[in-house]
Amino acid sequence: MIHVAAAVIDDGAGNIFLAKRPDDKHQGGLWEFPGGKVEPGESSEVALARELDEEIGIKVNQVESLIQIPYHYSDKSVFLDVFRVTGFSGEAWGREGQEVRWVPLNELDSYPFPAANKPILNAVLLPDKLLITKAYSSVSGCISGTESAINAFSLTWFMLRQKQLSEEGYAHWVRTMRAASQLNNRRLILSCSVELANSLKGEALHLTSQRLMAMSNREEFSGRFLGASCHSLEELNKAQLMQCDYVTLSPISPTKSHPSTPVLGWKAASNIIAQAALPVFLLGGMNQSDLMQAKSIGAQGIAGINAWCS
Ligand SMILES: Nc1nc2c([nH]c(=O)n2[C@@H]2O[C@H](COP(=O)(O)OP(=O)(O)OP(=O)(O)O)[C@@H](O)[C@H]2O)c(=O)[nH]1
Ligand SMILES: [Mg+2]
């Protein structure tokens, strides 16, 4: 397994730095996140700093772990240790003559990347805090409750989960919420059947673990992001088989609403994440103060329901 350190660098204005791999190299002609092989005796962080100096002429002074991906190409196996560069000095350029570009987030999907990079793209495009709506008795209450949680926690994405609604009721709420100016520019993850999500032309769909286990092919959902609720390694493996773009893992800690439900705890969560080559949101008893710890065990971030909603 070739150990590789790679960097997601943003310019603070929503653009990500990409470089084009030379034609004569492995996965040549495709775009990449700059980085390279970790040398014997080097830590990933040290290798990353060295590679970014050599390849794009910047001095890295702060990084955050983003995601780790083992991937088997037909000709070699790589372990991509991907970091988000949160502080650097100098101006990035193609020091080895490679083509480089700052690419707006919403254009990243149109660049050809090596196959191993799909989870990196997902980790870059998804947020680190995900709101899951609690049950509301009216769509107007849901809109104002969601709006206040979004503002309170600076959220960009939310999942509309309303198990009490019929399919028609859910579809009506989705249309109403999409039209609500208060929720303008927020990304909506549907929580419903695959059929309903497709008929609503959903960009993102979250499956219950039951729906996940019943799914047989990723192509059943036509939208960009497919997520699923996982509670065990078995469910995580199924989510990876279905090429899910992310999962939630729960319950991590006890919650006020379910104080005596058995929980996974941080240790088991960390062991499950180590088997995951996709972004994992920790769910269940998560507060904003848990975000750093979640990231430190390799999670994408945290998700919350009741404690985050008013
Ligand atoms: N840097 C980088 N490598 C990637 C990405 N995705 C991906 O599959 N890889 C693979 O990981 C390996 C990284 O090697 P590299 O070619 O960057 O290594 P390097 O900078 O040390 O180059 P060198 O071998 O010419 O000294 C390659 O096999 C490459 O195909 C990515 O986004 N960035
Ligand atoms: Mg390289």
UniProtKB/TrEMBL annotation:
PROSITE patterns: NUDIX, NUDIX_BOX. It comes from Neptunomonas japonica JAMM 1380. Belongs to the Nudix hydrolase family. Residues 1-128 form the Nudix hydrolase domain. It is an enzyme of class 3 (hydrolase). It catalyses: 8-oxo-GTP + H2O = 8-oxo-GMP + diphosphate + H(+); 8-oxo-dGTP + H2O = 8-oxo-dGMP + diphosphate + H(+). GO terms for molecular function: 8-oxo-7,8-dihydrodeoxyguanosine triphosphate pyrophosphatase activity; 8-oxo-7,8-dihydroguanosine triphosphate pyrophosphatase activity; 8-oxo-dGDP phosphatase activity; 8-oxo-GDP phosphatase activity; metal ion binding. Its EC number is 3.6.1.55. Mg(2+) binds at residues 35, 55. InterPro entries: Aldolase_TIM, Mutator_MutT, MutT-like, MutY_C, Nudix_hydrolase, NUDIX_hydrolase-like_dom_sf, NUDIX_hydrolase_CS, NUDIX_hydrolase_dom. Its cofactor is Mg(2+). This is 8-oxo-dGTP diphosphatase. GO terms for biological process: DNA repair; DNA replication; thiamine biosynthetic process. 8-oxo-dGTP binds at residues 21, 26, 32-35, 117. Keywords: DNA damage, DNA repair, DNA replication, Hydrolase, Magnesium, Metal-binding, Mutator protein.
